[in-house]
Each structure stands twice: as C-alpha cells, then as structure tokens.
Specification:
GO terms for molecular function: metal ion binding; metalloendopeptidase activity. This protein has 263 residues and is of the alpha+beta class. Helices cover 67% and strands 8% of the residues.
C-alpha cells in the first residue's frame, strides 16, 4: 500500500537530486574552501532556522492534552495509523489571515506549525478538513522529507529540479493524508479552502475550477508552475479525485458518486 501512495515522480526526482548533490559535495570536498563552505552553510541554515523556531515556540500556542485536547488526541490517532512513534510538537501561530501549515525539524525534533486561520476550522464544523491538513504535514514527517531536503540541499537550489521534487512530495502527502484519514472528500475540501477560503469553499464548482486551470496556459503560467514548490491546487484536487475513483486500490472508501459528479 505504501508504494501506491508515494507519487512515482518523488522517487525519480529524489534519485536525480541525490546524485547531483553528491557530485556537488564531492567537488567541494576536494578543496579546503569547499569544506568550509559546507560547514558554514550548515551552521548558518541551522542558526536562522533555530531562531525562527525559537520565536514560534515562545509565542505560539502548543497543542497538548490540556490545550485543545481533541486535536491532540486526533494527532495521536494519526501518528499511530501512520507508524510515527514520536508525536511531533504542534504549535498554532497567528499570521494575519494566511491559510497555511508546515512541518519542520530542528536538532532531532519534529514540529508542525498551524496558522490560526486554518486551525479555526475546528470552530466551524470542518474538523475533517483540519484533520487532512494535519495528516498532510505528518506525511512529510513519515516520509522524512525535511531530512531528505537537507541531504540534497545543493540540488534544491538548482532551478526546476528542487521544485520538481518538492511538488512530487506534495502529491505524496496529499495521497497519504487522504488514505490515513479515510476521507478523500474532506481532503478535496481542504485544498479548496486553500484556494478560496473557509467561507466560500463549499460553493466552488470543482469541475469548473479544474477546467479553468487547464484552460489557463501560456509561457508565464508554464514558468510559474516549474518554479513553484507546490503543484497548482486544481491539479492536486484532480489527483485526489482520480484517487477516489480507484479507492479500492488504496483500500479506503469514498463518496464515489460525488466524485463522478464533479468529473
């Protein structure tokens, strides 16, 4: 089952990125200056990342058994299903209306950061959509994407290559989140929320949204896609709709009638 959930492009682009990164590391190691660059780069990256996480940890609201206990319990359930032994620290921060979340790692500890506007889904009856967001970020941890990104850091700076790998990882995490939550419809709703917001997402005609995306072409649309770390939201929704049509292959149930209607 795991093999079905990992997007095939993830393996391909990771292999290419790993080979490229190893070659770059070897070329740098051949000189003393190169070794210093590697060490300095690692120190600077860790320092700035540590400062950012220090701010989040000192200002954000941490999800615990005493703080938003239902979300903490759901996280424990998801970690158990996904085979994640150490539950990551989850913090909620306010970012001025931005709908976002991310997973990260610092000095051996995994973190998930939820922006408050996406976390507020628990107040509007969209707990299943928030669960998808959580499962998506947990999938990054399960797949060790953060560690792998550090390993292939030189390749991640190469135009198109690093972004292609990142986009494939996003498809993988969408698949895993839909599978482990067992709710592909909530997964598609979650992505639609990222497109238009929490109030209007249920009014969006997803078929029209996907058709619109396919109709928008040209050089700059193509270039923006290649330079983006995330696939366009309509393509991510379409990927999940296709997954829902073949739900039995992935071993979960879905509202097939709703999916067929959108397609």
């Amino acid at each position: 089952m795991q093999g079905n959930l990992v997007h095939p492009n993830e393996k391909t682009y990771f292999t290419i990125s790993l080979v490229v990164s190893i070659l770059i590391y070897l070329s740098l190691i051949l000189s003393i200056i190169g070794i210093l660059y590697i060490i300095l780069g690692f120190i600077i990256t860790t320092l700035f990342h540590g400062i950012m996480m220090g701010s989040i940890r000192s200002n954000g609201v941490k999800i615990t058994k005493q703080q938003f206990a239902s979300v903490h319990e759901k996280t424990e359930e998801l970690c158990s299903k996904m085979g994640i032994s150490a539950i990551p620290d989850i913090f909620v921060i306010q970012e001025g209306g931005v709908l976002n979340a991310f997973a990260t790692r610092l000095l051996g500890r995994n973190f998930i950061v939820l922006y408050s506007d996406i976390f507020e889904l628990i107040e509007t009856g969209e707990e299943a959509e928030l669960e998808f967001v959580l499962a998506h970020e947990l999938a990054h941890i399960k797949q060790r994407h953060i560690t792998k990104n550090m390993l292939i850091l030189p390749a991640m700076w190469i135009p198109f290559l690093g972004n292609a790998y990142s986009r494939a990882c996003e498809y993988t995490c969408d698949r895993m989140a839909a599978y482990y939550t067992g709710n592909v419809d909530a997964a598609m709703n979650g992505l639609t929320i990222l497109a238009i917001g929490k109030s209007l997402y249920h009014k969006v005609n997803r078929l029209e949204y996907i058709t619109q995306s396919k109709a928008e072409g040209g050089f700059f649309v193509w270039l923006s896609h290649l330079l983006s770390s995330h696939p366009p939201l309509p393509l991510r929704i379409l990927e999940l709709e296709t997954m829902a049509l073949y739900a039995e292959v992935y071993g979960f149930t879905s509202s097939r009638e709703a999916v067929v209607e959108h397609l």
